[in-house]
Amino acid sequence: MFMQDDLATTAHASAAQSRDATWERVTLANGRSLHLRPVGPRDAGAEQAFVAGLSPVARFRRFHFGLNELPAALLRTFVSADQQTHVALVAETVDDLRIVADARYVLDGTARTGEFAIAVADEWQGLGLGSRLMQRLVAQARRAGLARLCGDVLADNEPMLALLRRLEARLAPDPEDASLYRVCLAL
């Protein structure tokens, strides 16, 4: 779908966007630094490369079905977040500006609840990045006046469930699907 030259061009565009956008530099448990910033339309190639680079298990945990790359319409939605009704952040490496995590929430019809999702590249898991992203989503949701963030988490995704327990989320088995937990964080 995207050629190597497109990815290089997108990385350079992403770098320019990073300088212009609201971003935060964070240092993780392994001592490496990342930028956390809003996603934008120029990130399409980098976002597609991120999803394609996830292991099959990580992609399944994020999307709950088999997926090798984002369909074009979903990719457009992912990189067109308005940062109000659809808040989307990426974590990118400082050295090569590669996206290594994606976190987002989308308001439901009541505008008081956001549906969240997070994905972290396999080699970046277990370093506190998911926690940092979730904390940033929570802070943004509070500023926006939301009452809660909710999401569906696979019952065997113990790392994510553990993170949400640390954040004192309410976990309830999905009554219609034993493979899922419905998770809500009161804000």
Describe this protein with a few key phrases.
187 residues, alpha+beta, Aminopeptidase
Give a verbal description of the structure.
- With 187 residues, this protein is an alpha+beta fold.
- It has one domain (4-186): 3-Layer(aba) Sandwich (Aminopeptidase), CATH 3.40.630.30.
- The protein is 36% helix and 30% strand.
- The chain contains six helices and eight strands; from the N terminus they run αββαααβββαβαββ.
- It has helices at residues 4-20, 44-53, 56-63, 72-79, 129-143, 158-166, and strands spanning 24-27, 33-38, 86-93, 99-107, 113-120, 148-154, 170-174, 177-186.
- The protein has an eight-stranded mixed β-sheet, with helices on both faces.
- Helix 5 links the parallel strand 5 (113-120) and strand 6.
- It is globular.
- The model is unreliable at 1-21 (pLDDT under 50).
